[in-house]
Design goal:
47% of the residues lie in helices and 17% in strands. By secondary structure, it is of the alpha+beta class. Helix 11 (373-384) packs antiparallel against helix 12, helix 24 packs antiparallel against helix 28 and helix 26 (786-807) packs antiparallel against helix 28 (824-842).
């Protein structure tokens, strides 16, 4: 990346006009005003003053007080606080305490959520190297990584974390693991020579070593080119600082719902109060009634139900290996239309594997399925020409590619320890990037010596004079072997060649042994897809979700994996990082819905892809495990990190962590997210239809010439017991049978969609009409006193809402096919609520508190019978819905 002009140590300015990876090593030292002996102490101090500490950028830290205050800006929360004040003025201390607890619970969750975002930056800073070995004025020192300045010469060796962005000036088989930064599963060999091309992808800049990556083999030296915010890791930190986590669909919908409900409640207060005064009712009574009704219209249990439903869902998800870090994000999965997933370690096993072998004119996929002298020689060469050693647990330790070859040879029955006992190594030519070869020399038990050479297939083939076949050595069929190499490479595999040579005595010049070789065969390697990945991708598509692969790997490799698991079929579905650089956001938006594979991408490009999808109205889940994924994890509607292989940075930036790193777990999480959102909507449907019944009962009574049906205490009691216990029981409602055969909810869909608003009106009118009919019958026919007819209306409204709660457990399925005991908490809540309601009628000391009277058997029978009407009508409505659904089946999205 570009940076300010550097200066020579003598003060002469030296301007850099090209990226660091394109500048020759000695020239880069000159540009930085440094030398191979490093900087002087005085120059280090001067540059530290100019460039500052080598630390990552920090966003503005917010105080705990600011975090807490922000939680009380939501309209629904403010409305609930007002409801708590009104309830307290009415003497309803229990209701006041319940509302305050709900508000505080939501505030705590919000503060924890914001604290989690702050920790994302801390984890990124902690990842950086804490110490570095540096040469200054010719002396090697161990210094804090934060004290490095541009121009420092850093010494690298296996096991070290790269402390800054370095231009390599010396390399001895130096290999660096960059998977956390670039997505590459294989360690990259670094070299001194400059790399041509200003827009070369990060993973191909072999002359650079980047901060936060790890040296896994060899040694080297590099001059510090960039520090702090100017490093590639610093750029990612800057992206995290500038990336805001958006609200989840639930938060957006509930906020809009709360605002609309609050305005409606205020209007309701005015209407009821004015109508009552016109009828000549007591002013104080009408004021208390109007305010009580407005409080009842607001479902104060909604935040609690949402929180408990999300918390129970999160607990269930842990059992399916998904850990939720941010509760409201659980239901976001139900809205997700795109899943953007990294390849390495997410769709693949994150382990190089030998998948194809060619020798003696035969190609096989497994090392244990063939035999013959040529194959045995190939297996022996794979075992011997290796620096891998078995670890304490038997797993091979060393370079990932060599480990894969070691494992393949062992699978064929040729373990290095056993073979080397008979064929001891006597010399070697280590691998280097110029020759692209490695050769080991061994004593032949039959006499003489033998060498085994492995390396880039083209390099091995070019040095081969003969080819071993079953009937002996013959001429090399270069043309046919090149076709084989091209075919294997086209499938996204890395191709290595093996050859051998026999000697009576070791040559004086070992390098001459890599000529006149006898070609043995080819081995194709790749990081293979997980066994269950294809099934998981298919399940995503059946649920109407489009999976997209975003990786730093090579396009051919990415497309190979994408084809195998069903993410993409055609080359036109692939876009590379270089192409992305040339696209404006508008250009990308024109292609983004038709692109399913992105290869060779950088962190800011991942962010660009997510934003383009969001601009097209999609809800995006981003899975990932590396540092490079963190900004996109934060920007996405829900970020999903890998628990086993994921970096701390990715985990802190994500909303959910897959404990088993299994893509299939996402599908289960989607189902749980949909169930959670369904259940929250069921509660809203229930509470609003029930509250509408109370509103219509009180609002319509004056127009029908009837007195005020309910007192404030009745309204608040119904609101407390019917919204509370049955409402919370919806959190335990099982998923509907067709939940994963539906397409995702449209992201802009209202929380009152799918006929909920209409159902609120007609069920509310039905409940209100039944209540007023019972009231009129009790007054006109039975001649009941005010306490008795009010007690009947009170009971019809309360128990009628319980029947409604039972009926709307499913929008289409009958409660009798669901099973009355399929949601035991609901059954228990309904039974307890009935018992509490009966107590207000028949417990003597409660009668004066609730202004009720014991009902006669006839009065109770009428109230109980009338209260079931809503249940039966809603069940009939569901029957009609089922008939319509059979005639017009729902379909999920596909290719």
């Amino acid at each position: 990346m570009d940076s300010p002009t550097r200066a020579h140590a003598d003060g002469t300015p030296a301007t850099r006009t090209r990226p660091w990876h394109t500048i020759p090593a000695d020239e880069s030292l000159g540009v930085l005003g440094s030398g191979r002996t490093g900087l002087s102490a005085a120059e280090v101090a001067s540059r530290f003053e100019t460039h500052g500490a080598n630390v990552l950028p920090e966003g503005e830290k917010r105080t705990l007080g600011h975090m807490v205050l922000d939680q009380f800006k939501d309209f629904l929360i403010l409305l609930l606080i007002g409801a708590a004040v009104v309830s307290g003025l009415l003497g309803e201390v229990t209701d006041t305490i319940a509302i305050i607890v709900i508000v505080l619970l939501n505030a705590v969750i919000g503060v924890v959520q914001e604290y989690r975002a702050e920790r994302a930056m801390e984890a990124l800073r902690e990842m950086a190297a804490t110490r570095a070995s540096v040469r200054r004025a010719g002396e090697v020192l161990d210094v804090a990584a934060a004290d490095l300045v541009p121009g420092d010469v850093v010494l690298l060796e296996a096991g070290r974390i790269v402390p800054a962005d370095l231009r390599i000036i010396e390399s001895a088989q130096l290999r660096v693991a960059e998977a956390a930064l670039t997505g590459e599963s294989e360690a990259v060999e670094k070299r001194v020579e400059a790399v041509a091309g200003d827009d070369t992808p990060l993973g191909d800049r072999l002359s650079m070593a980047y901060r936060g990556t790890q040296v896994v083999h060899g040694r080297g030296e590099g001059v510090v080119a960039e520090t702090g915010v100017d490093t590639e890791l610093g750029r990612i930190a800057g992206l995290l600082v500038g990336t805001e986590g958006g609200k989840t669909p639930l938060q957006k919908r509930l906020a809009g719902f709360g605002r609309a409900l609050g305005l409606a409640a205020l209007g309701l207060c005015a209407i009821v109060f004015v109508v009552g005064i016109i009828r000549g009712e007591d002013v104080l009574l009408m004021f208390l009634t109007a305010v009580s009704l407005a409080v009842a219209a607001v479902p104060e249990a909604l935040p609690a139900v949402a929180t408990i439903t999300l918390a129970l869902g999160a607990r269930r998800m842990v059992h399916t290996h998904a850990l939720v870090r941010r509760l409201p994000a659980v239901e976001t999965l139900g809205s997700v239309t795109y899943i953007c997933t990294d390849k390495t370690g997410t769709l693949t096993v994150n382990r190089m594997t030998a998948e194809r072998f060619l020798a003696d004119g035969q190609t096989v996929a497994h090392a244990d399925g063939v035999s013959g002298p040529v194959w045995e020689t190939l297996w022996r060469g794979m075992a011997l020409c290796s620096d891998v050693v078995p670890g304490p647990d038997g797993e091979p330790l060393g370079d990932p590619t060599e480990a894969a070859l070691y494992a393949a040879a062992a699978a064929a029955g040729f373990t290095r320890a056993e073979v080397e006992g008979a064929w001891p190594r006597v010399a070697e030519l280590p691998f280097d990037s110029e020759r692209k070869l490695m050769t080991t020399f061994h004593e032949d038990p039959d006499g003489g010596f033998v060498s085994f050479t492995k390396g880039a297939a083209e390099a091995v083939l070019a040095r081969s004079a003969t080819q071993l076949c079953g009937d002996g050595a013959g001429p090399v069929d270069t043309e046919e072997l090149n076709v084989d190499i091209d075919e294997i490479s086209a499938d996204g595999l890395r191709v290595l060649g093996y050859a051998m040579r026999r000697f009576d005595a070791l040559p004086d010049d070992l390098s001459s042994a890599e000529m006149e070789l006898a070609f043995l065969g080819l081995v194709g390697l790749m990081d293979p897809p997980r066994e269950e990945a294809a099934e998981a991708v298919g399940l995503c598509r059946s649920a109407g979700i489009v999976p997209v692969m975003i990786t730093g790997d090579h396009p051919a490799t990415a497309m190979s994996i994408a084809r195998r698991i069903g993410i993409a079929r055609r080359e036109t579905e692939v876009v590379t990082g270089v192409e992305l650089d040339r696209m404006t956001l508008e250009d990308l938006e024109a292609r983004v819905l038709d692109t399913h594979v992105y290869a060779r991408v950088a962190p800011e490009q991942k962010l660009k892809i997510v934003r383009a999808l969001q601009d097209k109205g999609q809800f995006v889940a981003m899975t990932g495990d590396g540092v490079n994924d963190a900004p996109a994890l934060r920007q996405a509607d829900i970020g999903v990190a890998m628990g086993m292989t994921g970096t701390d940075v990715a985990k802190e930036a994500a909303s959910m962590i897959l404990l088993d790193d299994n893509f299939t777990t996402i599908v289960r999480a989607v189902e749980e997210g949909r169930r959670i959102y369904d259940n929250i909507r069921k509660f809203i449907r229930y509470t609003m239809t029930s509250n509408a019944g109370e509103i219509f009962t009180i609002l319509l009574a004056p127009f029908l010439g009837l007195p005020i049906p309910l007192l404030p205490i009745h309204i608040l009691w119904i609101n407390l017991v019917t919204d509370g216990l049955p409402g919370l029981a919806y959190a335990a409602e099982p998923a509907d049978r067709d939940i994963m055969r539906r397409p995702p909810r449209p992201p802009a869909q209202s929380i009152l969609a799918e006929g909920m608003a209409a159902q609120m009106v007609w069920v509310g009118l039905l409940l209100g009409g039944v209540s007023l009919a019972v009231m009129a019958f009790a007054i006109e026919v039975l001649g009941a006193g005010s306490d008795n007819w009010r007690s009947m209306v009170f009971t019809v409204l309360c128990l009628g809402q319980l029947g409604n709660a039972l009926a709307i457990r499913s929008q289409t399925e009958s409660v009798f096919s669901q099973g009355l005991l399929s949601n035991r908490p609901m059954t228990g809540a309904l039974a307890l609520t009935v018992a509490l309601q009966m107590a207000t009628l028949y417990v003597p000391f409660l009668n004066p508190i609730f202004r009720t009277a014991p009902l006669s058997p006839l009065e109770l029978g009428i109230a109980l019978g009338a209260s079931t009407i809503v249940f039966w009508v809603v069940e009939a409505d569901k029957l009609v819905r089922r008939v319509r659904t059979r005639r017009k089946p729902a379909t999920a999205g596909g290719w």
